[in-house]
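Deviations from the work plan: none for this task. Representative record:
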Amino acid sequence: MNVLVVYAHPEPKSLNGSLKDFTLRHLERAGHTVQVSDLYAMNWKASLDANDSLERLSSERFYPSSESKHAFENGLQSEDIAREQDKLKWADAVIFQFPLWWFSMPALMKGWFERVYAYGLAYGVGEHSDARWGERYGEGRFAGKRAMLVVTTGGWESHYSARGINGPIDDLLFPIQHGMLYYPGFDVLPPFVVYRTGRIDDAKYAEVSEALGRRLDTLWTSAPIAFRAQNGGAYAIPALTLRDDLAAGQVGFAAHIARADEGVDEAAEEATEEVKQRAEANSSTMSIA
Amino acid sequence: MNVLVVYAHPEPKSLNGSLKDFTLRHLERAGHTVQVSDLYAMNWKASLDANDSLERLSSERFYPSSESKHAFENGLQSEDIAREQDKLKWADAVIFQFPLWWFSMPALMKGWFERVYAYGLAYGVGEHSDARWGERYGEGRFAGKRAMLVVTTGGWESHYSARGINGPIDDLLFPIQHGMLYYPGFDVLPPFVVYRTGRIDDAKYAEVSEALGRRLDTLWTSAPIAFRAQNGGAYAIPALTLRDDLAAGQVGFAAHIARADEGVDEAAEEATEEVKQRAEANSSTMSIA
């Protein structure tokens, strides 16, 4: 399989650098083909701006989304952006690896998403109707691909636990996993998180890399997070609020993950399956300018 | 009072640009002094890296936090960083204004936090003991200052409601409001959020700017979000998990906000007050190299 590793850390000799190298070796030994986007090494341009296209639709005023659409549709994107989109198209799975800085990804990686996620590729896909609100959250151009976060943090696991002061790690990662990965169609695997990075000695490193290896071995088989598909009947359209009988009375991010003990809603299941097939058909004919 | 506006949008003629200009005029008319950090106009460097200090502590390997500490303590920070820290020191309140891109702030602003928030200034402050885990979450160098987000988004308000598909806006902003603003000591005011920016005509703009004006008029008097102080007794040290009797049984971000109907815990209140006084004393003697 083809795996893209998008990676952001300024120091190759860091724990992150070692884990990234481990990932490459491990996947290649297992017979996979790997490409790496090492954003610091590439001197990736972080800021989305008017220089991201070769020719502006409007020179009067810069509208990020309409310029992105124009450039994407007409092969006018900056070359660094088009190259990353080609890697995404090629990949069967994408691993995003980064240190958690101020409770999110480094600016450089955020800028990768802002620039590479063009209108027509990652958003602004599909039609709006009474039954559908575009192709997103469970469908979209990346349907059929898998994504996984590999994250390191200096804090303790308890600080990121259900009642830990930093907030639960799953909630901190929700805007990324749900908002940036599930949104354009990825199946998102549970994250691999390394805590308390200041205390990683050789023994602990061996343990961490072994655990990461196991996750890489099951990249194709482990169950993705059960985020709810937008157009499968779970959400009212266009309000996009969760149906009252699903996670009844619950608010917050966790409500958007289906629980194993939830009764199966056959109509919604069918709609989701249909949506998924269409998404995969779209995905295979996708052409990136 | 002194107000710093940290602002990130690539187009001056955008809705964001207009609201930023409105904010400046409105605050100045009310007699306040305003400085703006217009990150796009400043061509702000987004990536935290080894060039952020004038002299490295170690040339062998780049450790972001120890290099930040060394540079901050010894007046060796890159000049653009030191200048922003001076503005923070000067400000009584800071407004962070940005469009919500992929459910967070633009990369350029994320890079502002990563680089300006030095070790010894925004983190790595205070001692660790059985009763305290550094000065953070309710104390820290910015104690006594206020902060507020001004955020625009293309999505509908219902999409960001308690059961909306994107997740509740308060939860999406928690990593910023709690993790990046409350952490180094800011009192964080409720955010000002503009939804459905594609549909802002003149009448709607008049309404939005009037509402923003009211928020600016009450910048000094409105109640901050009641995040719980770390060292006030609400959290076990060092696990930093919330005491069982507070928000009992609740998990997720909202548990870290005290509810109005919670019984007042006098011991915790006293500890918090003491913590606050010490923080404010620290803050007034703070010197930024």
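Confidence is low (pLDDT under 50) at residues 282-289 of chain A.
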